[in-house]
Write a structure and sequence with these properties.
Layout: E1 2-3, E2 6-9, E3 12-15, E4 21-22, H1 31-56, H2 62-89, H3 102-123, H4 129-143, H5 155-169
Antiparallel strand pairs: 1-4, 2-3
Helix pairs in contact: 1-2, 1-4, 2-3, 3-4
């Protein structure tokens, strides 16, 4: 579904965006899935910055902070994220290699950076480069708008599926 927002002044219209905004959804997401997803993703971002700053300041406990950041990112992005996506778009994963959903792709890239940081720190607790790189990767990922190039519902396909289901049930 597309819509365009414009300001009207006298007889003139001033659109707020160059292109129409696209709404992408299929179903509603229950709160017991969406709320933990949002909380874990928010805490992963906060912890990512905290861990990166702690690494820059050469403080202790970087491995513990990296572990918690990785856990929250895993739970929010790779456990609850696909469940949210399944409710909303009827697909668990639409990023690489099956699609172009940037939210899925940026989540897995950030996770790979934090996993790499965790592995490096597991072997060498004094390493400070990888937590900082992982923080920068996570910040870059969060700068990409959510659901950009994401799952789009083609209402023509949906109508065809509904017609097919009606024919089968009759």
């Amino acid at each position: 579904m597309e819509y365009q927002v414009a300001l009207l002044y006298k007889d003139k219209s001033y659109p707020l965006t160059d292109e129409p905004v696209i709404i992408r959804y299929k179903g509603s997401v229950p709160g017991f899935v969406l709320i933990p997803h949002i909380i874990f993703m928010f805490l992963a971002m906060v912890l990512s910055v905290r861990t990166g700053i702690e690494a820059l300041l050469n403080r202790p406990h970087i491995f513990r902070l990296t572990s918690i950041t990785l856990l929250f990112l895993f739970l929010g992005g790779l456990v609850f994220g696909p469940i949210v996506q399944k409710y909303a778009f009827d697909a668990y994963w639409t990023g690489w290699p099956w699609g172009t959903d940037l939210t899925d792709n940026k989540t897995i890239v950030a996770f790979i950076f934090w996993l790499t940081a965790w592995i490096v720190l597991y072997r060498r607790r004094r390493n400070r480069i990888w937590p900082v790189l992982a923080m920068v990767a996570m910040l870059a990922a969060y700068l990409i708008p959510h659901s950009m190039l994401g799952s789009e519902l083609d209402f023509r396909e949906l109508e065809a599926e509904q017609m097919e289901q009606k024919e089968i049930s009759q």
